[in-house]
Amino acid sequence: MTLTGEMQIGQQCVAGTGEAIQAVNPANNQRLEPIYLGGNKDHVHQACTLAWQAFDDYRTRPFEQRAVFLETIALEIEALGDVLIERAMLESGLPRARLEGERGRTCGQLRLFAKTVRDGNWLDVRIDHALPERVPLPRADLRQQHIALGPVAVFGASNFPLAFSVAGGDTASALAAGCPVVVKAHSAHPGTSELVGKAIQNAVKICALPEGVFSLLFGTGKTVGASLVEHPAIKAVGFTGSRQGGMALVKLAQQRKEPIPVYAEMSSINPVYLLPNVLNTDPVKMAQAFVASLAMGAGQFCTNPGLVIALESDALTQFKETAKQSLAKTPSQTMLTAGICTAFEKNIALVTAQSNAELLATGATQSENQNQCVGHLFAVNADEFLSNDVLQTEMFGVASIVVSCDSLEQVKQVTENLEGQLTATLHMQPQDRAFAQELLPILERKVGRILVNGWPTGVEVCDAMVHGGPYPSTSDTRTTSVGTEAISRFLRPVCYQNFPEDLLPTAMQSDNPLGVLRMIDGKKA
Ligand code: NAP
Which end of the chain has fewer CB atoms within 10 angstroms, the N or the C? Predict the structure, then answer.
C-alpha cells in the first residue's frame, strides 16, 4: 500500500493544511517520505461531528456487529502484512521480532474485546423489582445498565506504535464500549498510523457501520490535539505519554464548558524490592535478571524497573557488583525518537548532578547509529533518597537507582515517600513472608499491580490485568488501560425507573434475552 500522507475523516482521505510532520528514522536521523500536513480546526470539527452523528447508531447496533467489527479490524491489520512491520521498524527503530509480537498483541487485544462485547457482562445490569407493599413507602421498579460515554479522543503512544497507538488498547476498549473514536496520531510514526488507520477505515466499510465511527488526524498536540480535547462532541480522552503532555490534556478537559474525563497513563518508576532471603540466596542471578529486564526495549517501557530497594548487606554489595558488570556489557540501543533520547540524557544529567547519587555503572556504546541509549545505574542510601525528590524522576530508558536501607522500617519509609506507580515487585522466599506482609498495605495504596518473583515489564492483556495506579502513574487511579476492565473507562450507568417491559433496553428485560449476568434483588442471577 502506498502511503498518501492524508488524514482519514470518516471514509474520506483528506490532505491537511497545517504544520508538516515527517517521520524520522531514529537510527540514522533520515527523514522518511511522505510529508504529513497537520489538520486544522475544521478538520477536527468534521471528524468530531461525524463521530457524534455515528454515536447513537453505533452504540445501539447488536453486540454481534460490534464484535465482528473488532475482529475485522484485526484481520485488516494482519492483511497489511510485512509493509506494516517494515514501516514501523523504520519509524521506531524497534526490531522486527518486537514489532511482530506487538502486532500479535494488538490483534489479540481486539479479539479479546470482541469476546467481551459478546458476553455483555460489562453492562453490569442490576434489577431491583418494585415493592408496592413496602411501608412506609413503596419502592418503584429500578433497573440499571451501562451505556457508552460518547466519542473518545485517543492519543497514540510513541513506545508501542501498534499496541498503544491507532488500533491499540484505548481504541479497542472505546470501540468495544460503543464509542466512536477520533485518533490524534503520534507524530513519531505517521506512516504506521496511516496504515493501521486504513485497516480500521476498511473495517468500518466492510461492516457497513456509520463512517464517523473512526477518524485519524495528524498534527501537533498543541494544535490538533488541543482542539480535539476541546471539541464539545468528545466525551472522554485516552492518552499514553509524558506527565507534562497528559496533565496538559487534563487541564484542557477540565476547563471545557462540559468537563470530561482524561485517562492518561504517564509516569512510573516501578520499585523492585529484593527481600533479604531471596537476595542472600542468589544475588548474582538476581542482578543478571534485573539488568536484562532493565535493558529490554531500550528501557522504553512504562513498567521499566527504575528503582531497586533492599537492605544494606554483603549480598546487596554483590548484587550491585554483578549489575555493574552486566550493564557494562549491555550494548546501547536506538531510542524511539531524537526527542526521547534528548529527554533521557537530560534526566540522566539531572540525576548525575545530585551530589548524593553515586553513578555505579554505564552501559557499552557499540553502535554507530544515532540516538543511542547508554544504560546508567545509580546507587543511593535511603536517607539520601528520602531527602531528594529529583531521584524519583522517570528516566524513561535504561536507567535505574539502587536504594539501600538499614532496616525494614526504612524500607517502609521509602515506600511511603514514593509517588503513585503502575507496579511494585517483591522478590521473596517463603521466609520473607512477614517482611512482605508489612509492606503490602503501603503498596496497595501506592500501585496498580503488585508482582511476586517476576519482572514488571510484560503486561498481559486479560480480564484481571490492572495497568494503572495513583498519580502520576495515571491521571485517574480508578481504572486500567490494559485488559478488558479498560472498557469501563468509556461507560456510564443509567437507571430506568418504572419502565414498561417493551420500552426497556433488551439486557434489562425480565426474560434476559441476552443471557447476561445480572444482579437481581441483591443476588447474582
Ligand atoms: P508526549 O510528549 O507526552 O506525547 C504524546 C502525545 O501527546 C503526542 O501525540 C503529543 O503530540 C501529544 N502532546 C504532548 N504534549 C501535549 C500538549 N501539551 N497538548 C496536547 N497534546 C500534547 O510523549 P512522547 O513524545 O511519546 O514521549 C516523551 C516522553 O514521555 C518520554 O521521554 C517519556 O518520558 C514519556 N513517555 C512515557 C510513557 C509511559 O508509558 N509512561 C510512554 C511514552 C512516553 P505531538 O505530536 O505534538 O508530539
Answer: C
Ligand 1 midpoint to CA 186 (Å)? 8
- Residue 216 and residue 342 share a domain: no
Q: Is the CB of 394 inside a 6 Å radius of any atom of ligand 1?
A: yes
* Grid coordinates of 270: 516501578
190 within a domain of the structure (yes/no)? yes
Q: Running DSSP on this structure, what letter comes out for residue 299?
A: G
69-122 per-position pLDDT tens digit: 999 999 999 999 999 999 999 999 999 999 999 999 999 999 999 999 999 999
Q: Within a domain: residue 86?
A: yes
The reply to whether 138 and 259 lie within a common domain is: yes
**Closest-CA residue to 36 (of 189, 204, 254, 235):** 189
Q: Look up residue 426 and give its three cell numbers.
A: 517483591
CA distance 462 to 113: 10
Report residues of the chain scoring pLDDT below 70.
none
The DSSP element (H or E) to which 12 belongs, if any, is strand 12-14
Q: Tell me: the pLDDT tens digits for 252-295?
A: 999 999 999 999 999 999 999 999 999 999 999 999 999 999 99
Q: Is 245 in the pocket of ligand 1 (CB under 6 A)?
A: yes
Direct distance between the N- and C-terminal alpha carbons of the chain, in angstroms, rounded to an integer: 50
- 265 given a catalytic annotation: yes
Whether residues 100 and 53 fall in one domain:
yes
Residues 51 and 158 in one domain: yes
Q: How many CA atoms lie within 13 A of 480 on its CB side?
A: 19
Q: Which CATH number belongs to the domain containing residue 447 in this structure?
A: 3.40.309.10
Q: Is 326 in the same domain as 260? A: no
Out of 48, 107, 302, 405, which one is annotated catalytic? 302
In 3D space, the residue among 42, 50, 49, 54 whose CA is nearest the CA of residue 224 turns out to be 42
Does the Cβ of 191 fall within 6 Å of ligand 1?
A: no
Task: Give the residue, by CA position, lying nearest to ligand 1 atom 5.
Answer: 241
Catalytic status, residue 373: no
Q: Give me the catalytic one of 91, 102, 265, 345.
A: 265
Q: Both 262 and 406 in a single domain?
A: no
Distances (CA, A) of 459 to 62, 158, 163, 245, 466: 31, 17, 11, 23, 9
Report yes or no on 510 lying in a domain. no
Dig out the grid coordinates for 141 from the structure: 421498579
* CATH code of 25's domain: 3.40.605.10
The finding on whether 220 has its CB within 6 A of some atom of ligand 1 is yes
pLDDT at 365: 84
φ and ψ at residue 425, rounded to 5 degrees: -125, 135
Asked if residue 255 is part of any domain, the answer here is yes
Residues 124 and 19 in one domain: yes
User: Rounded to two decimals, what is the model's pTM?
Assistant: 0.97
Tell me, in angstroms, the distance from the centre of ligand 1 to residue 150's CA: 24
Quick one: 173 and 71 in the same domain? yes
Domain that holds residue 316: 271-452
DSSP string, 103-140: HHHHHHHHHHHHHHHHH-GGG-EEEE--BTT-SSS-B-
CA distance linking residue 232 with residue 285, whole number of Å: 55
Instruction: Determine whether the shortest distance from the Cβ of 345 to ligand 1 is under 6 A.
Output: no
